[in-house]
Amino acid sequence: MKSAKEMFGSGSGPFINLNWAGRVEKPEAVAARLAGTMSLLSAWTGLQWYHDTGDRNSTAVSYEVIPAEQQSLTGLIDPGPARERDAAPRSSSYFMSMRSSPDPNGTYMVLLSGSAGSDQELSNQVTLQLADDFPVGVPPEAARWFLDLIRLWEPDRARLSSQSVEQEIWLTRAAYLSWTSAKAYLEPLSDKEVRIPFGDGGLGIARTWTVEGIAALDRDLRQAGAPKASNRPPTQDQPQFPSGYPKELDSLARELNCSRGIQ
Length: 263
Known about the structure:
Blueprint lengths: L3 H5 L5 E7 L6 H19 L2 E5 L10 E3 L4 H7 L1 E2 L12 E8 L8 E9 L7 E7 L8 H15 L3 E6 H4 L10 E5 L11 E5 L3 E6 L4 H13 L40
Antiparallel strand pairs: 1-7, 1-8, 2-3, 2-5, 4-5, 5-6, 6-7, 8-9, 9-11, 10-11
């Protein structure tokens, strides 16, 4: 299984971001999505999730295991500021890390953070920061667990990218992997990516898995009039997804070029 370092380069800062417009959800619903995410990635890596139980006024940390259970996670979610009476439910924020042990001197495999459940257009997102040794896999493998995350969170837009890429691109969907909802965006096509229909939207897989390849895809999309992330309706029309994976992923490797190797 190829690591993030092998696929993107050392210290590239790989991450996944999923975001969506206004979608009111109670903490219990957000906790269920979190539990699914934690179980998915624990099964993928064999590691557990932790949260810091140390005093917030201290620099000392104390990690304890978080069970991937809806009830336990509901109690850990931090509600947002109080809103007016009879207003929609407050957003729920969360932060946790996947680690090999509770050793405070150890390193993380994944940092998961975000907020959800808000009726505000720019308030709903989840971000997963991936360590260099995270097992990304080759593009067909990465696309499958990426689609699993999309099914869990039902976003308007999702991207597997890196900080190295973000320094070179604008605000299009350009990324190693992307998914955008056709209910939220009218997206142009580019011959610099493979575009596969999936649910109420499309999965994009960059043909060249390098920073230069993603930057070229970004230029192509900009010239074609690709929308910014914020150019969508303020309230989400929630997308639907099928079970399973697109059959096109079975033959994907032969359509791509990766200087770090995709075999």
